[in-house]
Design brief:
Largest sheet: 7 strands, parallel
Number of helices: 15
Low-confidence stretches: none
CATH architecture of the largest domain: 3-Layer(aba) Sandwich
CATH superfamily of the largest domain: Glycogen Phosphorylase B
Strand order of the largest sheet: 3-2-1-6-7-8-9
CATH class of the largest domain: Alpha Beta
Radius of gyration: 21 Å
Length: about 375
């Protein structure tokens, strides 16, 4: 046998996720796009994840349901309980050559233990800043032990994929002792583009052509910083900065937000063409979230030609170019956000300039190129394990 050029191990991917199809969110969409890409490249894959009676999206690939329970405080999400004998039998039949973990949950932990017993490489993708959730639900005392658990979980993986350089830098600060790489996210620029702007649709929901519409898109949940969003909108009203508010998405905090922002228009969940139309039909995208590791919604807004005002956090730091495609400000700084939003409200010229630059920047995020790079990382992990 030629030891310098050993035969290539076939790539067979077992993916373990906390949510793959029962809630429409950024991680679920990214994982489905990954499996779709693997199928198009004739790379066998299988997905293990909790499921619910009603799915939120038609999933890609072969999905195997794992035992799960509702998560306290966030009952719409489910916690996978681990690898049962049935799941283990499914895995043996599939004969994976790599495990990919998409959530640091019980299912992911049991997958790590099994991968070590089977001498298989295990990689993990970092999708959500779970450590920030404690700040929005009155359980801040749990942040430190949660960070300790997350550090141990990711340290056991052969490779960890951060979605952006800003998130990777945060992990380096935590002294994560593993092979840290970037798996960025992409955007469909054919679907999300400025040509989707629809003045008739705006009029149908009560917005005049001259109105400056500030939008938020995403899960309507507290950890997205929506209380702060409402506080900033109230500041704009106090300063008589004329605007309208559009909230695109669904979630358990919707009733709370409707009480706080009675003049806002809430569309509920949108997808595909209606979602693209909503992005392009707004004038400013306001995303105060600090819980994302990559701002999928921010990138979609940019591709739609909408200037963005976002929290100076991992979800947007690697996307928004300050004073070129939008503005960044520290979460909690009402004055800074009000100032940035006010500048855009008062200047159509500035909105147009930022919007054009945002479209150009968004075109750098091609999905197939990004996913092809992830597959090469898989192959490196397998080679290193051998």
């Amino acid at each position: 046998m030629n030891r310098e050029n050993p035969p290539e191990t076939p790539l067979r991917v077992a993916l373990f996720a906390g949510n793959y199809n029962y809630i429409m969110d950024g991680p679920a969409r990214a994982l489905n796009r990954l499996v779709d890409y693997l199928e198009r490249q004739n790379i066998p894959s299988i997905v293990f994840a909790p499921t619910a009676k009603e799915a939120a999206l038609p999933h890609k690939g072969n999905l195997v349901s794992v035992p799960s329970v509702a998560i306290p405080l966030r009952s719409e999400y489910r916690l996978g309980l681990g690898i049962t004998p049935r799941i283990k039998a499914e895995l043996k039949a599939f004969q994976p050559t790599i495990f990919h973990l998409a959530a640091p949950d019980l299912l992911g932990s049991s997958a790590i233990r099994l991968a070590k017993r089977w001498h298989l490489p295990v990689v993990s993708s970092f999708h959500t800043r779970f450590d920030t959730y404690t700040r929005f639900y009155g359980i801040g005392a749990l942040e430190k032990p949660l960070n300790m658990y997350l550090h141990r979980f990711y340290s056991l993986c052969d490779q960890v994929y951060a979605p952006s350089e800003s998130m990777a830098e945060e992990l380096r600060k935590e002294k994560l002792s593993t092979d840290l790489r970037i798996w960025s996210r992409g955007v469909d620029c054919e679907r999300f583009n400025p040509q989707r702007r629809d003045l008739e649709w705006r009029r149908s929901i009560g917005f005049a052509d001259e109105d400056v519409v500030i939008s938020f898109t995403g899960r309507v949940v507290l950890e997205k910083g929506l209380d702060f969003f409402a506080e900033v909108i109230e500041e704009l009203e106090k300063k008589n900065l004329s605007h309208k508010v559009l909230i695109v998405g669904e979630g358990p905090a919707r009733a709370r937000m409707q009480r706080r922002l009675p003049k806002a228009h809430f569309t509920g969940h949108l997808s595909d063409e209606p979602l693209a139309r909503a992005y392009a039909s707004s004038d400013i995208f306001f995303n105060p979230s600090i819980s994302e590791t990559f701002g999928n919604v921010t990138l979609e807004a940019m591709a739609s030609g909408v200037p963005c005002v976002c929290a100076e956090a991992t979800g947007s730091l690697s996307l928004v170019l300050p004073n070129k495609t939008g503005f960044l400000a520290p979460f909690g700084n009402h004055e800074a956000f009000t100032q940035h939003l006010g500048a855009l409200i008062q200047s159509k010229e500035l909105r147009t300039s930022f919007g054009k630059a945002a479209v150009k920047a968004a075109h750098n995020f091609d999905w197939d190129a990004i996913l092809g790079g992830l597959v090469e990382n898989y192959r490196d992990a397998i080679l290193q394990a051998r």
